[in-house]
Design goal:
With 265 residues, the protein is mainly alpha-helical. It has helices at residues 2-11, 15-18, 33-40, 44-75, 81-92, 96-108, 131-134, 141-152, 157-164, 169-180, 182-197, 201-206, 215-220, 230-264.
Length: 265
């Protein structure tokens, strides 16, 4: 907790007290000037909005497509199911840094996107748009793997009974299995939202327009080779930590329920 306490304390100190040689956890002259300058002197509100859109939409797509893929691999019988699941596991073993350049080139030369022609030339593709971050991670391999384990813990008799009654496969998924997987989906939602909210390197690569910067990239702008604005930097750190804490507070009962169910199995 010590770094968090120090961050909060520094965010409430004036600049002169921050750079002082005296070590103090309690501000001698508390001020909210750093929080005011964070939103008045720069477009930090825009950065927060960008981060929220990326994290929220990414969470929705990851849960939806991850649940569909996990359900198919756990409850449906089809040829090549083992090979498909093995390919997902294999993709998780490849470091993300290895695929960044190929992914960037695919997004840059995507046909008919961002001014590109059919050959992917003439424009910028998906770069400098939310799609540059959302599309590559809309259905993460971890999401499919995680939800597959959740659906395997649910009884298959429920699906068999629904099929006998004439329910379609998608109806079985949406009406029976997905509601029963809320605990696992909540855990996945927290993990996905946190990863999207804290994303730094990939948005830094695909966004060259300052209006598209995320909160994490915006915080990095307070650190440069000439000076570091510790007050706004610490204030921004506190502000960007709040949404994840709120999400965890609302989802913690589902997280506990998921671990309790896993332990019981």
């Amino acid at each position: 907790m010590l770094p968090l306490i120090w961050t909060l304390s520094t965010s409430l100190k004036p600049e002169a007290e921050i750079i002082s040689s005296q070590l103090s956890f309690i501000p001698r002259t508390p001020t909210v000037e750093n929080y005011v300058s964070l939103f008045v002197d720069g477009p930090f509100a825009r950065y927060l909005a960008n981060s929220f859109i990326i994290a929220a939409v990414g969470t929705i797509t990851n849960i939806f497509f991850g649940s569909l893929g996990g359900y198919a691999l756990a409850k449906l019988q089809f040829r090549g199911r083992g090979a498909v699941f093995g390919s997902f596991l294999a993709s998780m073993m490849i470091p993300a840094i290895v695929t960044m350049i190929p992914t960037f080139l695919v997004l840059r030369h995507f046909p008919l996107a961002g001014g590109n022609d059919l050959l992917g030339q003439g424009g910028i593709g998906f770069l400098n748009s939310y799609a540059a971050v959302l599309v590559p991670y809309a259905a993460g391999a971890f999401a499919v793997f995680f939800m597959k384990q959740v659906y395997e813990s649910l009884p298959s008799d429920l699906g068999e009974a629904a099929r006998i009654d004439g329910a379609s496969e998608f109806r079985i998924f949406t009406s029976i299995y997905f509601p029963l997987s809320r605990a696992g989906a909540a855990v996945l939602a927290v993990l996905t939202f946190q990863a999207g909210w804290n994303a730094f390197l990939w948005p830094l690569i695909v966004f060259s327009d300052p209006n598209m910067y995320t909160a994490q990239v915006g915080l990095a702008s307070y650190v440069n080779e000439h000076a570091t604005l510790y007050g706004p930097l610490m204030a921004g750190t506190i502000v960007t930590s709040i949404p994840v804490l709120i999400i965890f507070m609302f989802a913690q009962k589902y997280i506990v329920q998921n671990f309790a169910t896993s332990g019981g199995k």
